[in-house]
Specification:
alpha/beta; four-stranded parallel beta sheet; three-stranded antiparallel beta sheet; 7 strands
């Protein structure tokens, strides 16, 4: 590119310093946000999930954070939290996916936080991550909004209103009981290799060869 290596290295170090400073400021804002929220236990807040170019820019999120804030609900992006204390998920290889799932665990455990996931139609990685996100949330309400340029604004308003109503009902019914209960009532089927032969173990514990008529791939 016609730039000397020494000059490029200096520019890189400056950029890293700026990025680190920005992230430190974000984490500080996140800590302050939680302190203020926890000072009023009756309030709730929404954490926006999604890729930064979808969920955090006005050109793509169709004003969703503003729609929530205009209803008196504090809103914050998921990456304003200290994520390194939370596990992600085994075999989650996307860096953004790891951070989303780490933040999801924070939201799941906090009684005043609820997640809104903003995604786009045909987003391949999100088709996996959203499933993991919902698994983490369990019974705790969350909202997924799948957008494109033709999404009707009225439809978004309706879904946000319904989401707020569901949160209100959830908290009235005793969120603490549901959030703390992570008992798995259903055991999913799984596949395994037995002496090099692929087999399926059903949810009832029955072992079937993968070519069995009851097994569908």
């Amino acid at each position: 590119m016609g730039i000397r290596r020494k000059t490029a290295l200096s520019a890189f170090k400056t950029a890293v310093k700026q990025q680190t400073s920005c992230m430190d400021e974000m984490k500080h804002a996140g800590e302050k946000f939680l302190q203020q929220l926890e000072g009023t236990p009756d309030r709730i807040a929404v954490v926006i999930f999604g890729r930064s170019y979808n969920g955090f820019v006005e050109e793509a999120h169709m004003g969703i954070p503003h729609k929530l804030a205009s209803r008196g609900i504090p809103v914050i992006p998921f990456d304003f939290f200290l994520l390194h204390q939370e596990p992600s998920k085994q075999h989650m290889y996307w860096g953004m996916g790891q951070r989303i799932l780490q933040a999801a665990r924070i939201v799941k455990k906090h009684p005043q936080l609820f997640g809104v996931y903003i995604t786009n139609f045909s987003c391949g990685p999100d088709s996996f991550i959203i499933g993991y996100f919902r698994d983490i949330m369990g019974r705790k309400p969350s909202l997924t909004l799948e957008l494109d340029s033709h999404t009707a604004d009225a439809g978004l308003e309706t879904r946000i209103e319904a989401f707020i109503d569901i949160i209100s009902a959830y908290r009235q019914l005793g969120a603490k009981e549901y959030t703390s209960s992570d008992k798995q009532t259903f055991i999913p089927a799984r596949a395994k290799l037995e002496n090099g032969i692929p087999k399926v173990i059903t949810s009832s514990g029955e072992t079937l060869p993968i070519v069995h008529p009851r097994v569908k791939l």
